[in-house]
Design brief:
There is one protein chain. The chain has 9 helices and 19 strands. It has 308 residues and is an alpha+beta fold. Helix 3 packs antiparallel against helix 7. It is globular, with a radius of gyration of 20 Å. The model has no long low-confidence stretch (mean pLDDT 95).
Length: 308
């Protein structure tokens, strides 16, 4: 599918843009599932000021979608209408250790790099990020967590740009964190960086904890497959993977998509899957779990765009 080219209109409205703006840009290579159609326009801002400038001048009728590393994402086969914003480069990829056992990271920094930087600085409390396959922007959006830790446990404040182009800083309380989500006040903000609170620790012990997290992931999760991480949120008092397994879905296939044999809360692209295959498989799993247990599973993976 090819969309009408809206890049000239965007550039006309914001002639001083410094970032990269592409028309009908392929999105599949930017997602871990490696599926999906194009973005009508894809913008990578040069820095925070460039992002704010664009948002302040963007025509109001252009829809905006923000993506990160694409680890927790299904882009549908018809692609994404409007403007897709993807942060990257040095401006959003820096990490700094600050006084008071604090760490500041750009929104495009992979979670694993935050864990490593904290360990190198002997900062304890951030090792859980070693087990999260995403970036800091996504961690802020969904209160990402793993192995006993969550973003809400360590965040001091987050910085971002509103859809109107204003640069803002949100306190921990303003983030409105809940299980795998942030609050209503964050919904019109594109996060650009975050400040985390660590605590003094022993570097060897922190590294040992990171090694434990790594070993646990490699032993239990299909991390070398084309996957999007955990597919469904854990319902209250239950584990999603156990419900999927009990419903007989381990190894279930739709087209080129399959429920992982290793960890059945993971869907994988076995090769040649479409986004429709992956999403249909997830919906069939939800149907079978509902039929077997009476429990509604809710997607943890974000699904965006339009069907082919």
């Amino acid at each position: 599918m090819t969309f009408p080219d809206i890049a000239p209109a965007i550039r006309a409205a914001a002639p001083e843009l410094r970032g990269r703006l592409l028309s009908n840009a392929e999105m599949a290579p930017l997602t871990w599932f490696r599926v999906g159609g194009p973005a009508q326009a894809l913008f990578t801002p040069a820095d925070e000021a460039d992002l704010a400038y664009l948002l302040a001048h963007l025509p109001a009728d252009v829809p905006i979608t923000v993506v990160g590393l694409g680890s927790n994402l299904i882009v549908r086969d018809g692609g994404i209408p409007g403007l897709v914003i993807r942060l990257g480069g040095k401006a959003f990829g820096e990490i700094a250790i600050e006084t008071g056992d604090r760490l500041r990271a750009g929104a495009a920094v992979p979670d694993v790099k935050v864990a490593r930087a904290a360990a190198d600085a002997s900062l304890d409390g951030l090792a859980f990020y070693r087990g999260i396959p995403g970036c800091i922007g996504g961690a802020l959006r969904m209160n990402a967590g793993a192995h006993g830790g969550e973003t809400t446990d360590v965040l001091i404040e987050a910085r971002g740009v509103t859809l109107a182009g204003a640069i803002v800083t949100l306190s921990h309380a303003q983030m409105g964190f809940a299980y795998r989500s942030s609050g209503a006040d964050t919904q019109d903000i594109i996060f650009t960086s975050a400040l985390f609170q660590g605590r003094p620790g022993d570097q060897a012990q922190i590294q040992a904890e990171m090694d434990r997290v790594t070993a646990a992931r490699e032993a239990a999760q299909p991390i070398r497959e084309r996957t999007g991480g955990s597919t469904f949120k854990n319902p209250p008092g239950a584990k999603a993977w156990q419900l999927v397994d009990a419903a007989g879905c381990r190894g279930l296939r739709v087209g080129g998509a399959q429920v992982s044999e290793m960890h059945c809360n993971f869907l994988i692209n076995t090769g040649g899957a479409t986004a429709a295959d992956v999403e249909a498989l997830g919906e069939e799993v939800r149907r079978r779990v509902k039929e077997q247990s009476g429990i509604d599973l809710h997607w943890e993976i974000k699904r965006i765009g339009v069907a082919a």
